[in-house]
Write a sequence for this structure.
């Protein structure tokens, strides 16, 4: 086990160190001499500064939410009754999959309107072809052909409108084509999923009567999710801004910060909205978890908490020199766990003290440093 001097030993060593350094010539006001033997006696450990690096942020509670654009509501297109539910809650559906079978008297009226319009359109086309043949033989004037063309165009428009009405009601292309061609009519309408997703809620039961536009069920496309992260108001300025990368705590997920909400909750937190960029498949809507939010200060020198000494509301680290140490002022930009992110006059390759800093501070102040 590494040697760990007691507080009494550190205090005595600090007094001795202060006495020794008080009589020694120094290069700068905040530099003081410490010999290798004194370092060993104090148990001073050093850490080499490699390069400025990012420091992980703090963990905050978050909740998985569904973007409004990712949820669709299947509504009754016609008044009627629910004949059958073809899916259940939490079931994954594909585009075009059958969801609900709806029985509606209005469906018969729409099919009848299409059948009549299609029949009349076919008759108009035959009339137009006959008039054109008669015009070619010089039997009828051109006006008769023009009138037949106008009638055929009107009948085609009525057929198109009748087909659109059925399509808006939820009828598929096969049903519309069959009715237009004079086929059998259907007494029930099968409503289908417009996109892939998960059935999150079913609002009706078999046999229930519904009106047009009544909500039947909801389908959520969970391929795109958001995270609502709760950040204390007093820490809002410390966390990263829009576009910063978030990471899950004990979860394989990643996110991208979108921005802060305008409302402060009763618990004095503000919501940071983030878009999930990785790991959405393993999340559930409404799930509570924790995510790590990076600090606004993206780069600095990551040092252990014990390496920073404070004096007169200022922070210092002790940088190793050929003769001893020099107290170097730094700015603490952020902290997470046992690490601090500091900025200041530090350079790659320097070594700083990360233990027994109290003894070094006493020696530094004993010879008049920072005054």
């Amino acid at each position: 086990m590494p040697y760990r001097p007691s507080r009494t030993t550190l205090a005595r060593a600090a007094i001795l160190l202060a006495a020794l350094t008080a009589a020694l010539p120094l290069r700068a006001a905040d530099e003081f001499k410490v010999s290798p033997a004194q370092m060993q006696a104090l148990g001073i450990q050093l850490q080499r500064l490699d390069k400025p690096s990012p420091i992980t942020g703090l963990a905050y509670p978050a909740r998985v939410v569904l973007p409004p654009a990712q949820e669709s509501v299947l509504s009754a297109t016609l008044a009627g009754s629910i004949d059958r539910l073809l899916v259940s809650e939490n079931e994954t559906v594909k585009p075009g999959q059958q969801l609900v079978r709806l029985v509606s008297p209005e469906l018969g009226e729409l099919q009848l309107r299409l059948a009549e319009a299609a029949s009349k359109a076919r008759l108009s086309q035959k009339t137009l072809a006959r008039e054109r043949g008669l015009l070619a033989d010089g039997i009828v004037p051109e006006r008769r052909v023009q009138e037949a063309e106008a009638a055929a165009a009107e009948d085609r428009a009525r057929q198109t409108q009748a087909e659109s009405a059925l399509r808006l009601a939820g009828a598929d292309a096969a049903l519309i084509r069959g009715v237009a061609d004079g086929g059998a009519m259907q007494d029930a309408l099968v409503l289908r999923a417009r996109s892939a997703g998960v059935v999150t809620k079913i609002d009706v039961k078999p046999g229930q009567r519904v009106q047009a536009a009544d909500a039947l069920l909801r389908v959520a496309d969970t391929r795109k999710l958001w995270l609502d992260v709760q950040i204390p108001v007093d820490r809002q300025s410390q966390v990263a801004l829009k576009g910063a990368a978030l990471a899950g705590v004990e979860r394989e997920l990643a996110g991208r910060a979108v921005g802060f909400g305008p409302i402060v909750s009763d618990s004095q937190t503000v919501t940071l909205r983030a878009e999930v960029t990785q790991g959405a498949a393993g999340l559930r809507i409404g799930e509570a978890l924790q995510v790590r939010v990076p600090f606004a200060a993206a780069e600095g020198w990551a040092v252990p908490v014990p390496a920073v000494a404070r004096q007169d509301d200022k922070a210092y680290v002790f940088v190793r020199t050929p003769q001893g140490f020099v107290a170097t002022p730094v700015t603490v930009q952020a902290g997470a766990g046992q690490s601090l992110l500091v900025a200041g006059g530090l350079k790659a390759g320097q070594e700083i003290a990360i233990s027994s800093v109290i003894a070094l501070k006493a020696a530094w102040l004993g010879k008049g440093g920072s005054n």
